Amino acid sequence: VVASMAHLQEEKLRLQEEVLGLQEKLTAQENDELSRSLQLQAQVETLKAKLLEQAQEISRLRSELGGTDAEKHRDLLAAENERLRQEMKACEGELRELRRQQQAPCWDCAHLQQKTNRLAEVELRLKDSLAERAEEEERLSRRLRDSQETIASLKSQPQQIKCIIKTVEVESAKAKQALCESQSRNQYLQEQVGMQRQVLKEMEQQLQSSQKTVAQLRAQITMYEAELEQAHGQMLEEMQAMEEEKNHAIEEAFSRAQVEMKAVHENLAGVRTNLLTLQPALRTLTHDYNSLKRQVRDFPLLLQETLRSARAEISQAIEEVHNTNRELLRKYRRELQLRKKCHNELVRLKGNIRVFGRVRPIMKEDGEGPEAANVVTFDADDDAVLHLLHKGKQVSFELDKVFPPQASQEEVFQEVQALVTSCIDGYNVCIFAYGQTGAGKTYTMEGTAANPGINQRALQLLFSEVRGKAADWDYAISVSAAEIYNEALRDLLGKEPQEKLEIKLCPDGSGQLYVPGLTEFRVQSVEDINKVFEFGHVNRATECTNLNEHSSRSHALLIITVRGLDRSTGLRTTGKLNLVDLAGSERVGRSGAEGSRLREAQHINKSLSALGDVIYALRSRQGHVPFRNSKLTYLLQDSLSGDSKTLMMVQVSPAEKNTSETLCSLKFAERVRSVELGPVSRKAELTSWPSQEQLEGDSPGTAASSSRGHTSPSPGQLSGRAASIRRKLQTSG
Known about the structure:
Residues 5-157, 200-252 form a coiled coil. This protein is an alpha+beta fold.
C-alpha cells in the first residue's frame, strides 16, 4: 500500500508539473494573441489616418479642379470610396469573427476578456471612422452638385468666360498631376490594406492552432485528472481491503492464541502431574548418566585400540590387494610377451613382412603455429598402435611395433637385432626404411657419428657375434654399397661411381640376382666400417629442397654378406643383410623441385609407385608380380619373393602440415604388413673340410669383385678425399 501510495503521489506530482507547463504555454499564447491584437489595432489606426489623408486630398483636388475635372474624376472617386467601404466592412466582419472566437469558453477567461474589450474598442473606433467617412462623402457629393450647377451657369455666359475656362483647363493640368499622385497613393494604400488583410488571416490561423492546442491540453488534463481519480479510488479500495485483511488476521491469530493458550494450560497441568511421577525415574536416569560418564571417560582408550586394530586390518588388506595387482600385472605382461612372441612366430611361419613405425619429434624446421601441431598420439596399453588426427577425425593404425619420438637409436636396434643375427645363421635379411622426405629415414638407417643407426650397429653386432663363435666357426664379412639414382644403378665404392651397372641372374641356376662389377670390401673391424661408410657418403647424391636441407636423391643399398664355415662339421652358410635407405616420397609443389631436382623427384616417385604395385600384387596373390618395372623392385626381388626375412621401417612426421603424407605412409605400411611371403629357407650346405684361404676365396665372382675393390684408383677419377679413403681401405684389406 505504501509503495502504491508513493507511486500515486509521484504520478500526482508529475501531473501537476504537466498542468503548470500547460498553463505557461497558454499564458505565452495569450500574450502572443494580445500583442497581435495590439498590432491589428495599430494597423486600423493607420488605415483611418490614411483615409483622412485621402479625404483631405480629395477636397484639395476639388478646390483646385474646375467643374470639368470634377465630372471626370467623380466616378473614379465614387468607385474608390465604394471599394474602401467594402474593405472596411470586410475588416469589420473579420473583427467580429475574431471577437466571437475570442469570446469562446476558456478556462483562463480573464486574459480573453481583456482581448475582447480591446477588440470592442477597436470596433468602435472603426465605426466612428466609417461614419466620418460617410459624412465626408456626403459633403463631397454636395460640393459636386454645386460644382455641376456652377459649370452649367458658366456655360450660359459670353465668350470671355471661355477664355477663363481655358485658363482653368490650363491650371487643371496641375490638378491632373496631383490626381495621378493621389491615385498612386491610393494604390499604395490598397496594397497596405491587402498586406494587413494577409497579416489578419495569418493571425486567425495562429489563433485557430492555439485554440486546437488548448483543446488538446484540456483533453489531456481531463484524462490525467480521471486517471488520478481512478488511481486514488483504487488506492482507497486497496487500503480498505488490506485493513479488512489485517483485522481478519488479527482476529484469527487471537482465536488461535486463545486455543493454543488453553492447550498450553492443559499441557502444563499434565506436565505437573508427570513431574510428580517422574522423580523416581529421574533418580534412575541420574545413576545411569553417572555410569555412562564413566564409560565415556574410558572411551578414548577403547577407540584408540579399535583404530589400531582397524588400521592393521586395512593395511593388511591393502597389501594383499597390491600383491594381487602386482601378480596380475606380472601375468598380464607375461601373457602380452607370450602373445607377442606367438604373433612373431606366426608372422615368421607365414613369412609376413614385419613393419615397424617410428615417429620423429617436432623440429624447428616444421615452423610454428597450427601447421606445426602434433597430430600423432600413441596407445598407452599397446605399443603397436598409433592414432593420427586427420581432418578432425582420429584414424588408428596397428603395426608390429611403434616407436615414439623419444625412442633412442639403441631401443630401435634392440627390436631389429634378432633379424640381424639370423644373417649369421645363413638367412637372407632385408631391412628398408620408407617414408616421406624429411621423416628421418637416413637418421634411422645411418645415424650420426655420435649416435649411429641400424647400418653401423648391425655390423658391430655381427662382429661381436663372430668373435663369440670364433672357437668353432670361421666367418668372413664383406660389404658392398650401391645407389639407384634416376633409375640407374651405381657403385658407391667403385673407381667409377658414375658408371651404370646392371642386375642379372646368377649363372649357377639358383634364380638369385647379382650385380656384376659391384665392388665388395671385406671388413674386419669397426674402423673398416667407418671408412666404408665415409667413402659411400662422399659419392651418394643429396641435395637441398624446401622440405629437407639434406634430402636423399637416390635409393641407397648396403649389402652385407656373411660367409661362415663350421670347422667341426664342415657346414657352410651364406647370409645376406640388405639395408636399404629409400629416397623420400615428395610432392613437387611443396618441395619446390626444379630442373634436375624435378627429374630426380619424378624417378623417385616412379620407383616408389612400382614398389607399391609389387606390394599390391603380393598381397592379392597375383600370378605375375611386376618386379622388373623398376630397378629398385628388381634389386629387392630376392627380399620380397619369400626367400628372405623382411622388415620395413616406416618413418612418419607428426606435424599437422604433413598429415596427408603421413596417412599415405601408414596406409602403405598396413598393406605391406598383410603380405605373406611364405617360410624362409636357410642357405647351408655340408662340404669337406676347407682351409682359411678357401673361406676367403669363397666364389670366383666374389674374388673378382674383391680384387676389383683392391685396385688403386687413379687421382684423376676420384677426388683427393675419396682416393685417400680408398687407400686406407686397401691397406686394411
